[in-house]
Amino acid sequence: MRSSTTRRVTIRSRFATDNDITLFCGDCLALLRAIPDKSVRLVVTSPPYNVGKKYERRLRFDQYLDQQEPVISECVRIVKPGGSLCWQVGHYVCGRAQVIPLDIALHPLFAAHKCLRLRNRIIWHFEHGLNARRRFSGRYETILWYTKGDEYAFDLDAVRVPQKYPGKKAYRGPRQGDYSSHPRGKNPGDVWVFPNVKNNHVEKTVHPCQFPIELPERLILALTRKKDIVVDPFLGVGTTAVAAVMHRRRVAGADLVRDYLDIARQRIRQAVKGTVPYRPMGKPVYAPPANTSLTTFPSSRDGHKSGR
Q1: CA-CA distances (angstroms) from residue 7 to 3, 26, 81, 245, 248?
Q2: Residues 106-144 pLDDT 10s
């Protein structure tokens, strides 16, 4: 949902708890260490995967984990009791094309904090990406959702999705004959299906590994309230900030690349005005029409070796 009225927000480069938006250019640890204990409702991020993108330096895998550990510890420190941490990751490909799922490798770093509870391992499924030749092509990533403590904020109604069978009725018991589905929709479950941001996506910027607004948007709506503080230590081009601003949350994020933060600033201003390019939350995944040139196998390719 877009903001219906334009409002005034201020973007600052140094953190203060009353900031609307903080965009810090530099090491995320410097930002995190400036945030007071137990002041943040939600941390949601997608850290570098250690795959050698231009915004990261590839490390030995043990060094990568060592690099992540203090960031995670600082995030745990700043989150309020009842708040949440959401870590969205894919996998790391090491020697001989072996795959290491990053969520499995990172979980012990979270589990070391006895105050945390893993509530969900969410699968984000998308249909497009690199095509592998010697293994099945990767078409999902994961989100680890931890809460700080046993009592926590969770607004399911804010993220319900349409029922598959809204007219279904109970067939036995005291509610026999009554409609059995929730009138506001169903729980979206722990497998989320929406497109990744490829070249023709409406939200696409120059960032090579940008996630869609819908991903942090669902988490922000379910796990925070208006005016809560949301933090993204690896902000990139500001997708988490855009989702937060759209729903009147305060937000702070860091990135090493100033050009990315310039794009984030532009997108945030568009979000405030309600003009940011945006694929609406809950929009069905596009299904191409049948019997077109793109969806019909060409007769000239009969017998052609394919399967890539």
Answers
A1: 9, 28, 30, 10, 10
A2: 999 999 999 999 999 999 999 888 888 888 999 999 999
Note the pLDDT tens digit of each residue in 176-235: 888 888 999 999 999 999 998 888 889 898 887 889 999 999 999 999 999 999 999 999
Strands (E) across the chain are located at: 11-12, 21-25, 40-45, 79-89, 91-93, 99-101, 116-125, 140-148, 191-193, 229-232, 250-255
Alpha-carbon distance of 267 to 57, in angstroms, equals 27
Single out the residue of 107, 114, 113, 193 nearest to residue 144, CA to CA. 107
* CB contact burial 99-130 (16+ within 10 A = b; e otherwise): eeebbebbbebbeebeebeebeebebebeeee
Ranges of each domain in the chain: 20-296
Cβ proximity of 23 and 11 under 8 Å: yes
Q: 20-296 belongs to which CATH class?
A: alpha beta
The residues with which 40 forms a beta bridge, in sequence order, are 79
Q: Which of 301, 232, 227, 251 is nearest to 45 (CA)?
A: 232
Which residues on neighbouring strands pair with residue 123, listed in sequence order? Answer: 142, 191
Around Cβ 209, how many Cβ atoms within 10 Å? 15
Query: And the tokens for 285?
Result: 């995944």
